[in-house]
Amino acid sequence: MAEKLEIRPKRTILYFRIAGSFVVPIIIASVIATVACVKDAPGVGMLAAMVLLVLAALSAVHAWFHFHSIRYEIDDTHLVSMKGVFWKVKRSTPLEKITNVDVRQGPIDRLLGVGKVWIFTPSTGSLLPEETLSGVENPHEIRKAILDRTGALRGGTPVASSASTGSSPQVVSLLREISATLRNIEAKLKE
User: Fold this and answer.
1) What pTM did the predictor assign?
2) Beta strands 71-74 and 5-7: pairing type?
3) What domain range is 25 assigned to?
4) What is the pLDDT of residues 68-87, one digit of tens each?
5) Which one of 9, 35, 49, 139 is most buried, counting C-beta atoms within 10 A?
6) Is residue 89 part of a domain?
7) 83 Cβ contact partners less than 8 Å away, ≥ 6 residues apart
């Protein structure tokens, strides 16, 4: 029995989200204050700017609490995702149902040293992930841990992944056998 793996997003993501809560409101507040001063109504501009800054502060507080509610756990049989401040969401995905695990990292993710781990199951198809572990450090190691535990549940059968490169010798051998069998069947049908 493997030990439960607990994962949380990297703290840098929290600071990035809090800063993001203020960027757009500050820009909008500056534009409103400038327009109000030009129109000779600085009081209205200052009021609008203050309202926007209060909303930005509330958004930052929500980001703080939401960030601390995010937790991912992987045990021997399930991947569990928990998050939410007002509306709590807890999702459990059986490891035996996982068909694919991808790692996604954009330029900002790479800059911050984080990534997203996308978990796919047959119920979601190949386009939408069943679950996404966002903002996690070492996403490739987490992917490997999920694949290892999924493989252990299936008796050593690995899970497919679009990040895999190359073909294993067993797969190539099996494909050659199938090809030879199909040629034999085709030859017999022509007789």
Assistant:
1) 0.70
2) antiparallel
3) 10-69
4) 999 999 988 899 999 999 99
5) 139
6) yes
7) 66, 69, 70, 71, 89
